[in-house]
Amino acid sequence: MSTHDLYIRPVEAPGQDVPMTGAARFTWEYDDGRARLLALYQKGKDKQWDAAERIDWDLEVDPYNVLGTPDEAMAIHGTKYWDMMSADERSDLRRHFASWQFSQFMHGEQGAMITAARIVESVPDLDSKFYSATQTMDEARHTEIFSRFLQEKIGMVYPINGKLQDLLNETLSDSRWDMPYLGMQVLIEGLALAAFGVCRDVTTKPLPRQILAYVMQDEARHVAFGRMALRDYYKQLSSAELAEREEFVIEGCYLMRDRIRGFEVWENFGIDPKEVREFVEQSAFHQMYRSLLFSRIVPCVKDIGLWSDRIRQTYDDMGVLDMSKSDLEALMRHDEELADQLDAQRFAAEEADRKAEVDTVVAAEAEAAAS
Ligand SMILES: [Fe+2]
Ligand SMILES: [Fe+2]
Predict the structure, then answer these.
(1) Ligand 2 centroid to residue 115 C-alpha, Å
(2) Of 163, 213, 241, 331, whose Cβ has the fewest other Cβ atoms within 10 Å?
Protein backbone atom coordinates (compact mmCIF):
# COMPACT_ATOMS: atom_id res chain seq x y z
CA MET A 1 0.00 0.00 0.00
CA SER A 2 1.25 3.51 -0.78
CA THR A 3 1.63 6.07 2.01
CA HIS A 4 -0.55 8.28 -0.17
CA ASP A 5 -3.48 5.99 0.62
CA LEU A 6 -2.98 6.68 4.33
CA TYR A 7 -2.74 10.50 4.16
CA ILE A 8 -5.83 12.10 5.62
CA ARG A 9 -5.84 14.47 2.64
CA PRO A 10 -3.96 14.39 -0.65
CA VAL A 11 -0.42 15.80 -0.62
CA GLU A 12 1.79 16.83 -3.50
CA ALA A 13 3.12 13.66 -5.16
CA PRO A 14 5.77 12.39 -5.03
CA GLY A 15 7.15 15.19 -2.81
CA GLN A 16 8.42 18.73 -2.73
CA ASP A 17 11.55 20.55 -3.91
CA VAL A 18 13.28 23.17 -1.75
CA PRO A 19 15.87 25.20 -3.69
CA MET A 20 19.27 25.42 -1.97
CA THR A 21 22.00 28.02 -2.13
CA GLY A 22 25.63 27.99 -1.03
CA ALA A 23 28.61 25.84 -1.81
CA ALA A 24 29.54 22.20 -1.37
CA ARG A 25 32.93 22.46 0.37
CA PHE A 26 35.84 20.12 -0.06
CA THR A 27 38.73 20.13 2.37
CA TRP A 28 42.24 18.85 1.63
CA GLU A 29 43.09 18.84 5.31
CA TYR A 30 42.96 15.14 6.30
CA ASP A 31 44.90 15.51 9.53
CA ASP A 32 43.62 15.09 13.05
CA GLY A 33 40.45 16.94 13.93
CA ARG A 34 39.22 18.23 17.26
CA ALA A 35 39.39 15.51 19.90
CA ARG A 36 35.88 16.06 21.28
CA LEU A 37 34.31 15.99 17.85
CA LEU A 38 36.19 12.87 16.85
CA ALA A 39 35.12 11.21 20.10
CA LEU A 40 31.53 12.03 19.26
CA TYR A 41 32.03 10.62 15.75
CA GLN A 42 33.41 7.41 17.28
CA LYS A 43 30.40 7.20 19.57
CA GLY A 44 28.11 7.80 16.57
CA LYS A 45 29.68 4.80 14.83
CA ASP A 46 29.70 2.56 17.92
CA LYS A 47 26.10 3.22 18.83
CA GLN A 48 24.41 2.41 15.55
CA TRP A 49 21.52 -0.04 15.97
CA ASP A 50 18.96 -1.71 13.74
CA ALA A 51 15.31 -0.95 14.38
CA ALA A 52 14.28 -4.22 12.76
CA GLU A 53 16.09 -6.07 15.57
CA ARG A 54 16.14 -3.82 18.61
CA ILE A 55 12.47 -2.88 18.54
CA ASP A 56 9.81 -5.43 19.37
CA TRP A 57 7.47 -4.80 16.44
CA ASP A 58 5.18 -7.68 17.48
CA LEU A 59 3.84 -5.60 20.36
CA GLU A 60 0.27 -4.57 19.63
CA VAL A 61 -0.89 -0.96 19.52
CA ASP A 62 -4.48 0.18 19.80
CA PRO A 63 -4.71 2.87 17.09
CA TYR A 64 -7.48 4.54 19.08
CA ASN A 65 -5.36 4.74 22.21
CA VAL A 66 -1.78 4.84 21.02
CA LEU A 67 -0.08 6.30 24.10
CA GLY A 68 -2.65 5.41 26.77
CA THR A 69 -2.70 9.02 28.04
CA PRO A 70 -5.64 10.34 30.09
CA ASP A 71 -8.47 12.33 28.46
CA GLU A 72 -7.26 15.48 30.25
CA ALA A 73 -4.39 15.59 27.77
CA MET A 74 -6.84 16.52 24.98
CA ALA A 75 -7.03 20.30 24.64
CA ILE A 76 -10.82 20.27 24.34
CA HIS A 77 -11.36 18.06 27.39
CA GLY A 78 -13.92 19.62 29.72
CA THR A 79 -15.38 21.88 27.00
CA LYS A 80 -18.72 21.75 25.19
CA TYR A 81 -17.03 20.09 22.19
CA TRP A 82 -15.83 17.20 24.32
CA ASP A 83 -19.21 16.82 26.03
CA MET A 84 -20.99 16.67 22.66
CA MET A 85 -18.82 13.84 21.37
CA SER A 86 -19.80 10.17 21.50
CA ALA A 87 -17.31 7.60 22.79
CA ASP A 88 -16.54 6.61 19.17
CA GLU A 89 -15.88 10.19 18.16
CA ARG A 90 -13.52 10.66 21.09
CA SER A 91 -11.62 7.52 20.10
CA ASP A 92 -11.42 8.82 16.56
CA LEU A 93 -10.08 12.16 17.79
CA ARG A 94 -7.41 10.34 19.83
CA ARG A 95 -6.35 8.41 16.76
CA HIS A 96 -6.10 11.58 14.67
CA PHE A 97 -4.05 13.29 17.34
CA ALA A 98 -1.61 10.42 17.66
CA SER A 99 -1.34 10.25 13.88
CA TRP A 100 -0.70 14.00 13.67
CA GLN A 101 1.95 13.84 16.39
CA PHE A 102 3.85 10.86 15.00
CA SER A 103 3.53 12.18 11.43
CA GLN A 104 5.25 15.41 12.48
CA PHE A 105 7.96 13.31 14.15
CA MET A 106 8.40 11.37 10.91
CA HIS A 107 8.52 14.43 8.63
CA GLY A 108 10.85 16.16 11.11
CA GLU A 109 13.19 13.15 11.03
CA GLN A 110 13.28 13.27 7.24
CA GLY A 111 14.07 16.98 7.52
CA ALA A 112 16.85 16.14 9.98
CA MET A 113 18.28 13.53 7.60
CA ILE A 114 18.32 16.03 4.73
CA THR A 115 19.80 18.76 6.93
CA ALA A 116 22.51 16.47 8.32
CA ALA A 117 23.46 15.55 4.75
CA ARG A 118 23.48 19.26 3.92
CA ILE A 119 25.91 19.85 6.79
CA VAL A 120 28.20 17.12 5.45
CA GLU A 121 28.23 19.06 2.20
CA SER A 122 28.61 22.62 3.45
CA VAL A 123 30.58 22.55 6.73
CA PRO A 124 34.28 23.43 6.17
CA ASP A 125 36.01 20.94 8.52
CA LEU A 126 36.47 17.23 7.99
CA ASP A 127 35.77 16.25 11.63
CA SER A 128 32.33 17.88 11.37
CA LYS A 129 31.67 16.23 8.02
CA PHE A 130 32.56 12.85 9.57
CA TYR A 131 30.27 13.34 12.51
CA SER A 132 27.38 14.63 10.44
CA ALA A 133 27.62 11.60 8.16
CA THR A 134 26.82 9.38 11.19
CA GLN A 135 23.96 11.66 12.10
CA THR A 136 22.57 11.37 8.56
CA MET A 137 22.42 7.59 9.11
CA ASP A 138 20.82 8.02 12.55
CA GLU A 139 18.11 10.22 11.06
CA ALA A 140 17.50 7.74 8.23
CA ARG A 141 16.87 5.06 10.86
CA HIS A 142 14.54 7.35 12.79
CA THR A 143 12.54 8.20 9.67
CA GLU A 144 12.24 4.48 8.93
CA ILE A 145 10.99 3.76 12.48
CA PHE A 146 8.31 6.44 12.63
CA SER A 147 7.16 5.60 9.13
CA ARG A 148 6.77 1.93 10.05
CA PHE A 149 4.99 2.79 13.28
CA LEU A 150 2.51 5.04 11.46
CA GLN A 151 1.85 2.64 8.64
CA GLU A 152 1.65 -0.61 10.60
CA LYS A 153 0.25 0.55 13.91
CA ILE A 154 -1.81 3.72 13.40
CA GLY A 155 -2.77 3.34 9.73
CA MET A 156 -3.20 7.06 9.16
CA VAL A 157 -0.75 9.78 8.15
CA TYR A 158 -0.94 13.57 8.41
CA PRO A 159 0.87 15.88 5.96
CA ILE A 160 3.75 17.98 7.24
CA ASN A 161 2.66 20.96 9.30
CA GLY A 162 3.03 24.23 7.37
CA LYS A 163 5.08 25.95 10.09
CA LEU A 164 7.50 23.05 10.29
CA GLN A 165 7.88 23.09 6.51
CA ASP A 166 8.51 26.88 6.60
CA LEU A 167 11.25 26.54 9.18
CA LEU A 168 12.84 23.65 7.29
CA ASN A 169 12.77 25.63 4.05
CA GLU A 170 14.35 28.64 5.70
CA THR A 171 16.99 26.47 7.34
CA LEU A 172 17.92 24.68 4.12
CA SER A 173 17.85 27.64 1.76
CA ASP A 174 20.31 29.76 3.79
CA SER A 175 23.84 29.78 2.40
CA ARG A 176 25.61 30.39 5.76
CA TRP A 177 26.95 27.05 6.98
CA ASP A 178 25.90 27.52 10.59
CA MET A 179 22.21 28.06 9.81
CA PRO A 180 21.32 24.38 9.31
CA TYR A 181 22.80 23.76 12.76
CA LEU A 182 20.83 26.54 14.30
CA GLY A 183 17.53 25.73 12.60
CA MET A 184 17.76 21.97 12.86
CA GLN A 185 20.01 20.98 15.76
CA VAL A 186 18.90 23.71 18.10
CA LEU A 187 15.31 24.60 17.21
CA ILE A 188 13.60 21.73 15.41
CA GLU A 189 15.47 18.95 17.22
CA GLY A 190 15.25 20.79 20.53
CA LEU A 191 11.48 20.91 20.31
CA ALA A 192 11.17 17.37 18.94
CA LEU A 193 13.37 16.01 21.69
CA ALA A 194 11.26 17.62 24.39
CA ALA A 195 8.08 16.29 22.74
CA PHE A 196 9.61 12.79 22.52
CA GLY A 197 10.53 13.08 26.20
CA VAL A 198 7.02 14.03 27.31
CA CYS A 199 5.48 11.19 25.26
CA ARG A 200 8.11 8.68 26.47
CA ASP A 201 7.49 9.59 30.10
CA VAL A 202 3.66 9.65 30.02
CA THR A 203 2.93 6.69 27.76
CA THR A 204 1.74 3.48 29.39
CA LYS A 205 2.29 1.47 26.19
CA PRO A 206 5.47 -0.54 25.63
CA LEU A 207 6.03 -0.09 21.88
CA PRO A 208 5.94 3.73 21.70
CA ARG A 209 8.03 3.79 24.87
CA GLN A 210 10.74 1.65 23.30
CA ILE A 211 10.76 3.67 20.11
CA LEU A 212 11.00 7.02 21.85
CA ALA A 213 13.61 5.91 24.40
CA TYR A 214 15.90 4.49 21.72
CA VAL A 215 15.51 7.42 19.34
CA MET A 216 16.26 9.82 22.20
CA GLN A 217 19.46 7.97 22.98
CA ASP A 218 20.74 8.97 19.51
CA GLU A 219 19.40 12.50 19.73
CA ALA A 220 21.57 13.26 22.76
CA ARG A 221 24.60 13.08 20.43
CA HIS A 222 22.98 15.36 17.86
CA VAL A 223 22.36 18.11 20.36
CA ALA A 224 25.94 17.81 21.65
CA PHE A 225 27.22 18.24 18.10
CA GLY A 226 25.19 21.39 17.45
CA ARG A 227 26.27 22.95 20.73
CA MET A 228 29.95 22.18 20.21
CA ALA A 229 30.04 23.62 16.70
CA LEU A 230 28.05 26.76 17.42
CA ARG A 231 29.60 27.61 20.77
CA ASP A 232 33.03 27.80 19.13
CA TYR A 233 31.87 29.65 16.04
CA TYR A 234 29.65 32.24 17.72
CA LYS A 235 32.53 33.44 19.87
CA GLN A 236 34.12 34.80 16.70
CA LEU A 237 31.10 36.61 15.26
CA SER A 238 30.43 40.36 15.41
CA SER A 239 27.46 41.67 17.35
CA ALA A 240 25.66 42.42 14.06
CA GLU A 241 26.15 38.82 12.91
CA LEU A 242 24.99 37.50 16.27
CA ALA A 243 21.90 39.72 16.10
CA GLU A 244 20.94 38.11 12.76
CA ARG A 245 21.15 34.68 14.37
CA GLU A 246 19.07 35.83 17.30
CA GLU A 247 16.42 37.13 14.94
CA PHE A 248 16.29 33.70 13.30
CA VAL A 249 15.94 32.00 16.68
CA ILE A 250 13.13 34.30 17.79
CA GLU A 251 11.17 33.82 14.59
CA GLY A 252 11.83 30.07 14.69
CA CYS A 253 10.61 29.77 18.29
CA TYR A 254 7.32 31.44 17.42
CA LEU A 255 6.91 29.14 14.42
CA MET A 256 7.61 26.15 16.67
CA ARG A 257 5.22 27.31 19.34
CA ASP A 258 2.45 27.57 16.76
CA ARG A 259 3.30 24.19 15.31
CA ILE A 260 2.58 22.39 18.55
CA ARG A 261 -1.05 23.40 18.59
CA GLY A 262 -2.24 20.75 16.09
CA PHE A 263 -4.61 23.07 14.19
CA GLU A 264 -5.03 20.59 11.36
CA VAL A 265 -6.73 18.08 13.66
CA TRP A 266 -9.23 20.60 15.03
CA GLU A 267 -10.09 21.75 11.53
CA ASN A 268 -10.80 18.16 10.54
CA PHE A 269 -13.24 17.86 13.39
CA GLY A 270 -15.00 21.13 12.55
CA ILE A 271 -13.71 22.84 15.70
CA ASP A 272 -12.50 26.43 15.45
CA PRO A 273 -8.74 26.37 16.20
CA LYS A 274 -8.95 29.89 17.65
CA GLU A 275 -11.33 28.63 20.30
CA VAL A 276 -9.00 25.74 21.08
CA ARG A 277 -6.18 28.26 21.45
CA GLU A 278 -8.19 29.97 24.18
CA PHE A 279 -8.85 26.67 26.00
CA VAL A 280 -5.16 25.91 25.85
CA GLU A 281 -4.16 29.36 27.11
CA GLN A 282 -6.41 28.88 30.13
CA SER A 283 -5.42 25.34 30.92
CA ALA A 284 -2.72 24.87 33.57
CA PHE A 285 -1.99 21.41 32.15
CA HIS A 286 -1.23 22.81 28.71
CA GLN A 287 0.77 25.74 30.05
CA MET A 288 3.01 23.24 31.78
CA TYR A 289 3.17 21.05 28.67
CA ARG A 290 4.21 24.00 26.54
CA SER A 291 6.95 25.14 28.86
CA LEU A 292 8.27 21.56 28.98
CA LEU A 293 8.49 21.63 25.21
CA PHE A 294 10.96 24.47 25.47
CA SER A 295 13.04 22.76 28.15
CA ARG A 296 15.71 21.74 25.62
CA ILE A 297 15.75 24.77 23.31
CA VAL A 298 16.12 27.55 25.90
CA PRO A 299 19.20 26.25 27.78
CA CYS A 300 20.84 25.39 24.44
CA VAL A 301 20.31 28.89 23.02
CA LYS A 302 21.81 30.30 26.20
CA ASP A 303 24.72 27.89 26.06
CA ILE A 304 25.76 28.75 22.48
CA GLY A 305 25.97 32.43 23.41
CA LEU A 306 22.81 33.87 21.87
CA TRP A 307 21.63 35.35 25.14
CA SER A 308 20.82 39.02 24.52
CA ASP A 309 18.13 41.03 26.31
CA ARG A 310 15.96 40.57 23.25
CA ILE A 311 16.08 36.77 23.41
CA ARG A 312 15.46 36.78 27.14
CA GLN A 313 12.50 39.10 26.67
CA THR A 314 11.05 36.80 23.98
CA TYR A 315 11.28 33.77 26.25
CA ASP A 316 9.82 35.75 29.10
CA ASP A 317 6.84 36.73 26.91
CA MET A 318 6.40 33.09 25.92
CA GLY A 319 6.47 32.08 29.59
CA VAL A 320 9.47 29.77 29.19
CA LEU A 321 12.39 31.85 30.47
CA ASP A 322 12.71 29.66 33.58
CA MET A 323 13.68 26.77 31.33
CA SER A 324 17.10 28.39 30.91
CA LYS A 325 17.94 26.88 34.30
CA SER A 326 17.36 23.30 33.19
CA ASP A 327 20.50 21.20 33.12
CA LEU A 328 20.89 20.02 29.54
CA GLU A 329 23.81 17.70 30.30
CA ALA A 330 21.83 15.94 33.02
CA LEU A 331 18.77 15.59 30.78
CA MET A 332 20.88 14.02 28.02
CA ARG A 333 22.59 11.65 30.44
CA HIS A 334 19.21 10.60 31.72
CA ASP A 335 18.01 9.94 28.12
CA GLU A 336 20.97 7.69 27.45
CA GLU A 337 20.67 5.81 30.75
CA LEU A 338 16.96 5.26 30.32
CA ALA A 339 17.46 3.53 26.96
CA ASP A 340 20.16 1.32 28.49
CA GLN A 341 17.90 0.45 31.43
CA LEU A 342 15.09 -0.46 29.06
CA ASP A 343 17.44 -2.80 27.19
CA ALA A 344 18.57 -4.37 30.46
CA GLN A 345 14.97 -4.95 31.62
CA ARG A 346 13.98 -6.45 28.29
CA PHE A 347 16.97 -8.77 28.17
CA ALA A 348 16.39 -9.83 31.78
CA ALA A 349 12.74 -10.61 30.95
CA GLU A 350 13.77 -12.58 27.85
CA GLU A 351 16.36 -14.46 29.87
CA ALA A 352 13.74 -15.36 32.50
CA ASP A 353 11.37 -16.58 29.76
CA ARG A 354 14.11 -18.67 28.23
CA LYS A 355 15.00 -20.17 31.60
CA ALA A 356 11.35 -21.00 32.32
CA GLU A 357 11.11 -22.73 28.95
CA VAL A 358 14.23 -24.80 29.65
CA ASP A 359 12.94 -25.72 33.14
CA THR A 360 9.63 -26.91 31.65
CA VAL A 361 11.41 -29.11 29.10
CA VAL A 362 13.75 -30.53 31.76
CA ALA A 363 10.83 -31.25 34.08
CA ALA A 364 8.86 -32.94 31.29
CA GLU A 365 11.86 -35.08 30.40
CA ALA A 366 12.41 -36.03 34.03
CA GLU A 367 8.75 -36.99 34.33
CA ALA A 368 8.91 -39.09 31.14
CA ALA A 369 12.03 -40.85 32.38
CA ALA A 370 10.42 -41.61 35.75
CA SER A 371 7.28 -43.15 34.23
FE1 LIG B 1 16.29 11.93 14.77
FE1 LIG C 1 18.49 14.18 15.44
Answers:
(1) 10
(2) 241
